[in-house]
Amino acid sequence: MQAAPNPDNVKVLRHTYASKSNAERAARAEWQKIQRGVATFNITLARGRAELFPSLHAKVSGRKLQMASTGWSIERVVHNVNDSGFTTSVEFDIKPNKLEDQGSVARR
User: Which domain of life is it from (predicted)?
Assistant: First the structure.
């Protein structure tokens, strides 16, 4: 018999898993999927960086402490060549496994 879903839950996984560890792994994966995009920012680099591409991990420096102490993942990269030269626009998302750490940083 399945328990009724709690209305406070963000997501109910409807699949029945073979083991507790499989269920926990699926729950963690779904949580990370939900958390993507919770914290994002964009930046255009004055000098293009052709080696940047989505899924790379990044550290940010010269910004707010919370941003510098957080792990980021590159979500989108646009390289642009025009009369002004070569630039790169980068969209960053917070790495999902860093979200729990953010709570402790925000409370300081």
Answer: Bacteria
Is the model's pTM score more than 0.70? no
User: Is 72 part of any domain?
Assistant: yes
Q: Is 79 helix (H, G, I), strand (E, B) or coil?
A: strand
- pLDDT digit string, tens, across residues 80-107: 999 989 999 999 988 755 544 444 333 3
Residue 79 sits in which domain range?
A: 38-107
Half-sphere exposure of residue 30, counting CA atoms within 13 Å on the CB side? 13
Rounded to 5 degrees, what angle do the CA atoms 41, 36, 91 make?
25
What value, to the nearest 5°, has the Cα angle with vertex 106 and ends 69 and 60?
20
Is residue 62 included in any domain, yes or no? yes
Q: Where are the beta strands (DSSP E) in the chain?
A: 40-45, 57-58, 72-82, 85-94
Rounded to whole angstroms, the maximal C-alpha distance in the chain is 67
